[in-house]
Recover the amino acids of this structure.
């Protein structure tokens, strides 16, 4: 579970803003499926949260911030390269200040706090701690001085007592490159025993629990999921059929292709596939419109192209094949979100989705949320999404502390706040109040109204 995420000096965020997913005690009892207990704290976390705001208010920037933290932890920064640094541009002083991220999350029954601050050239500070009862104890801290020297201190809570932990202790003595997170160096060590349980659990949360999905991004390895997981293929087919998309069945079609005819052909396609293969059974490169390039570990010289095909049922009852690219944008968007929904209900995870309702009918977006809430009991699942869909502003569907807003101030900086900050009657129609501007976070359209009046032809004199 993600408990909070704080961001400062990143894109439209100037001063620190915190997206808090701890349930407010002022709202009374926390019940499933909207909440679950945070181990050892007496607190509850919200399973589902939405973020509203006008276009350009900073909603997507929050998702981009979370995605950047995830990417920097898991893949890091190449030697000699700059760290992606996008400070707030509407204040000259911000370009001379570091960007800061901090998040709290739960993994293996423990609450972790991880954060770092950096600029384009170096990670200035980095920290990982764990809560033991009411006390926060360091797992490690890292500081980079102005000369680029990195110092890492391992805390006693890192639980590194055995001989197997000498690797991580040696790694801490060496430190990290100025432009690299120490946690990424631990990831690259790729030795769970040497990492120690707490470092390994923190890494696993990023690698296996957290996932972000952009408004146009296909879910990673969708073709692979349909081709190899029969339960998911059945789930996806059933959901698409019940959602009235017209799709009755999904299939993956495979054909061998010469390297010269590979879609998105590049001279290093085979090399990239084999590099992705490593010690896995297959190397895979995603492509557009439900396509995927595939190399089997037993036949590394053969490139295969796999495509998703959708089958509709004709009036005579037979199945008719349609390429996925001919399906509606809404059907394709839903298909790309279904692996997230399936994983959330089957295994658990934290999914952050930008523009949940993109190209989807409002009723379908609501059904997606309702299905999640009905299916997540007994899992550690969490769904966070940005949206403009006002029909989801329903207190029978969402908790007040799970409805968030993003709004820019007069200086163009994004501020985050939740519906729990307002006193509202239990019988108030939240959607109506939002559209009337009661909670802010809506576009101001007075200028457009004025422009319409100016462009309107003058009425003829009677």
């Amino acid at each position: 579970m993600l408990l909070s995420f704080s961001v400062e000096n990143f894109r439209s965020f100037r001063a620190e803003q915190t997206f808090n997913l701890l349930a407010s005690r002022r709202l009374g009892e926390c019940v499933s499926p909207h909440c679950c207990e945070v181990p050892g704290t007496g607190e509850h976390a919200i399973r589902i949260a939405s973020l509203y705001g006008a276009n350009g208010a900073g909603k997507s920037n929050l998702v981009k911030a979370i995605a950047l933290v995830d990417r920097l932890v898991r893949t890091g920064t190449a030697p000699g390269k700059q760290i992606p640094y996008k400070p707030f541009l509407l204040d000259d002083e911000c370009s001379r200040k570091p960007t800061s991220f901090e998040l709290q999350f739960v993994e293996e029954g423990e609450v972790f706090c991880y954060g770092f601050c950096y600029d384009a050239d170096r990670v200035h500070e980095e920290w990982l701690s764990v809560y033991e009862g009411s006390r926060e104890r360091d797992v490690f801290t890292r500081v980079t001085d102005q000369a680029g020297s990195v110092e890492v201190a391992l805390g006693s809570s890192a639980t590194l007592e055995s001989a197997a932990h000498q690797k991580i202790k040696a790694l801490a003595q060496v430190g990290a490159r100025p432009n690299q997170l120490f946690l990424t160096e631990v990831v690259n060590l790729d030795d769970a025993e040497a990492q120690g349980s707490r470092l390994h659990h923190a890494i696993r949360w990023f690698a296996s629990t957290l996932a972000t999905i952009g408004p146009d991004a296909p879910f990673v390895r969708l073709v692979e999921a349909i081709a190899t997981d029969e339960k998911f293929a059945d789930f996806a087919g059933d959901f698409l059929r019940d959602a009235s998309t017209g799709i009755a069945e999904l299939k993956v079609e495979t054909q061998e292709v010469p390297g010269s005819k590979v879609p998105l052909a590049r001279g290093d396609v085979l090399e990239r596939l084999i590099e992705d293969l490593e010690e896995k059974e297959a190397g895979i490169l995603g492509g557009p419109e439900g396509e995927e390039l595939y190399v089997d570990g037993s036949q590394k010289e053969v490139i295969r192209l796999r495509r998703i095909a959708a089958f509709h049922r004709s009036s005579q009852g037979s199945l008719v094949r349609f390429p996925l690219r001919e399906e509606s944008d809404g059907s394709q968007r839903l298909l790309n979100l279904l692996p997230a929904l399936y994983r959330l209900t089957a295994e658990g995870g934290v999914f952050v989705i930008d523009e949940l309702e993109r190209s989807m009918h409002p009723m379908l977006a609501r059904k997606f949320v309702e299905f999640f809430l009905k299916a997540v009991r007994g899992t550690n699942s969490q769904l966070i999404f940005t949206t403009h869909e006002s029909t989801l502003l329903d207190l029978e569907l969402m908790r007040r502390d799970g409805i968030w807003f993003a709004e820019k101030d007069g200086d163009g900086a994004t501020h985050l706040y939740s519906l729990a900050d307002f006193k509202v009657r239990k019988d108030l129609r939240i959607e109506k109040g939002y559209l009337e501007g009661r909670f802010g976070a809506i576009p101001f359209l007075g200028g457009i109204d004025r422009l319409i009046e100016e462009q309107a032809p003058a009425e003829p004199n009677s």
